[in-house]
Amino acid sequence: MEKILIVGATGSTGKRIIEILNNSQSFDPVAMIRKEEQKDIFEDMEVKWVLADLEQDDFSQALKGIDKVIFAAGSGGKTGPDKTTEVDEKGAIKIIDAAKKAKIKKFIMLSSMGADEPSKHKDLEHYLEAKAEADEHLRESGLKYTILRAGALTDDMGLGKVKLAGKLGAPGEIPRDDVAFLLIMSLADPLVQNMTFEAVEGDEPIKSAMIELSRG
């Protein structure tokens, strides 16, 4: 089984990823947590955890024995520029560099729609600029990667149906459940390899949408 480090494991989307992977026959999730008191959440689920902080410099211990990484951390669009830069840009870049050094097989990044045009979204500009910098760093890192630029995340029940494209014509929403499944499906090596794509809720089942997108 491949060991998957979930960065942002204590967040709403991260927890969904852990729950799904914990029932997988192919992947063994490892939750990255900032504070030791957060370990109880995962110990109750019998999920392994490692202690590391995106605002620190050394991720070598967190990446030990890890095969692939899902980065689902985010400060959120309402967070101030300084915190956003520390987590969404600098923190992401540091762990991308550490993943390259650790020879991680694939790095899956949860990004955001609008990251290709931050100036068009003034209320989220600093957040999208940070995401854009991290995305670009990953693309240039030499790691195998997938970058998922999701629409606005909701807590609605996932229906397993999406609309995917390298660039969608209009903004939209997508349930966290469906984002979690998209990120997990991206772990499969042939799927969306070295691709950046956008996702909102739609009419096509996730699996067929991913396969179709991968074929180009």
UniProtKB/TrEMBL annotation:
Superkingdom of source: Bacteria
Report TM segments: none
CDD domains given in the database record: SDR_a5
Pfam families assigned to the protein according to its UniProt record, in alphabetical order: NAD_binding_10
- Domain annotation NAD(P)-binding: ranges: 8-190
Alphabetical list of SUPFAM superfamilies matching this protein = NAD(P)-binding Rossmann-fold domains
Q: PANTHER family this protein is in?
A: FLAVIN REDUCTASE-RELATED, UPF0659 PROTEIN YMR090W
- This chain's protein is named SDR family oxidoreductase
Q: Which organism is it from?
A: Salinimicrobium flavum
